[in-house]
Amino acid sequence: MERSGSKAESLGLSKKFLENEFKDSFKKINRNVSLQLQDLINIYGRFGWEHYFQGQIGNTITLYFKRTKKLNDLEITNNLSKEEKALLQSLDNDQLP
Question: Which end of the chain is more exposed for a tag (fewer CB within 10 A), N or C?
Fold first, then answer.
């Protein structure tokens, strides 16, 4: 049994077509993981979260955050750059600030 391609291909859309139509969305980010994590932590900070502890069990690093007051999340979200919004969209719902 042959495996089907991506969902886009199953809809008749080629990767080349999608890359051409949505150039900004297909930009390659050549940043290392540390800088990407720094960007994400800065976004959490804008939402009122403060990093206060970091733990490690084996190869897994856990970052702990606290939030002292609820801010207007919608207003903050509207002021994020396209890159910051894209970064947040890549997170699981449980990981959102």
Answer: N
Q: Residue 40 is encoded by which pair of tokens?
A: 């994400």
Q: Is the pTM of this model over 0.85?
A: no
Q: At 2, is the pLDDT very low, low, confident or very high (cuts 50, 70, 90)? A: very low
Tokens of 37: 């994590």
**Token pair 């894209």: residue:** 86
> Tokens in use for 59?
């190869």
85 φ/ψ sector (left φ>0, alpha ψ -120 to 50, else beta): alpha
CB 30 within 8 A of CB 22: no
Q: In DSSP terms, which residues pair with 60 in a beta bridge?
A: 57
